[in-house]
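Researcher: Go.
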Amino acid sequence: MPAPPPERSPDAIRHDASKATSEAARDTKASVEGVVDGLKTKGVLNINKATRDQLESLPGITPAQARRIVAGQPYASSDELVKRHLVGNAEYDRIADKIETR
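Model: Structure:
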């Protein structure tokens, strides 16, 4: 027969419950912020009007790349990012469906 669990004080139980609640609230807040950010960037991003911050939200785009992309606006087509050596082929493949040049 297994030994019964050790007795815990009510204060220890309250402390553990408080800690778990705090962690759950923090995780929930982070999830909600992620959803909000995702909704803000719904649809495709026009690289001719995009800001550096918007470009940095694209997967794999660094702050330096975002600055160069903004400095090179306007673009006739999105594949100019590769032609002008602003992003590599692999990076372009990751963002191609998320950008446009309208």
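Model: The longest strand covers residues 45-46.
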